[in-house]
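Would you mind writing out a protein's amino acid sequence and the numbers that encode its backbone to help me picture the idea?
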Amino acid sequence: MAKFLTTVATSFYIEEIILNAKTSLTLVTPYLKLSKNLIERIMDADNRGIVITLIYGKNKLHANEQRKLDVLNNLELYFCENLHAKCYHNEDSMIITSMNLYEFSEKNNREMGIFVEKDIDLKIFEDSLREIDSIKNASIIEKTKESSSSNSREVIFQKHLGFEEQWNFYLPNLYKVLKNRLPGHQVILDKILKIKGYPVEGVEIEVSGKINFLFDNTKFYKSIKSNKRSKINELLPNNRVYWNYKKINIYDLRNAPETEINNDGVKVEMNKALNVIKVVSEQLIEQ
């Protein structure tokens, strides 16, 4: 039968629902400001290939929250202006609660909720799913999930003038993917590819024969170097990572075989670049 939850218990079971998701996760919350712990859990779910549906409402997302979500490949994001319901579920369990996914609520508000398990409370579970589907159908789609490959569409390679070398032949295709994934950010393709103000303000990404993360703020760079250097090196075993003054330079390993300049080669190089951008971006956002 349904279980009553206090504020602390609600926070605990929301985390459990995210951790125990096998294929899908749905988060319905009018107000959204994710704590460091919750965004890390959601990123872990995304890395496991969990399809994440997030429905929020009231006001458009703050730029900082949008950046946190931009790195999630398996996210489906919806906006429902008159949303007031709060509900979180995976395939097996659900919380219906007063608590938003809002850091202030977790720490300061008196909240309550009920915890429902599909096997025990099937009718409540199914009735709630139908209502969530109705809310989703009334919402505006803001982001659809990417496929597990670099792009949800088949890559069609064609040579572009100025992009015929081993190090840059895939950049026009990567540019198209990033423009689609990051609609709120300035993505530029000149001789190299640049992403400005991503994944956080004061950081710029350059993609050429290597991938550079450039920092405006010395203090932020030193903090990342001190706290995230080992983790980034660990997560990029197929790359060489150099930490220079206000700059992270990331190269393929020297012994990596050359990629053929064709359609398959584009996919390989885009996947490698997107993985580096995703890994480092997640670490910067978590800081």
User: Anything to note?
Assistant: The two ends are 40 Å apart (CA to CA). The mean pLDDT is 88. Residues 34 and 72 are 14 Å apart (CA to CA). Residues 170-286 form a domain with the Yope Regulator; Chain: A, fold (CATH 3.30.1460).
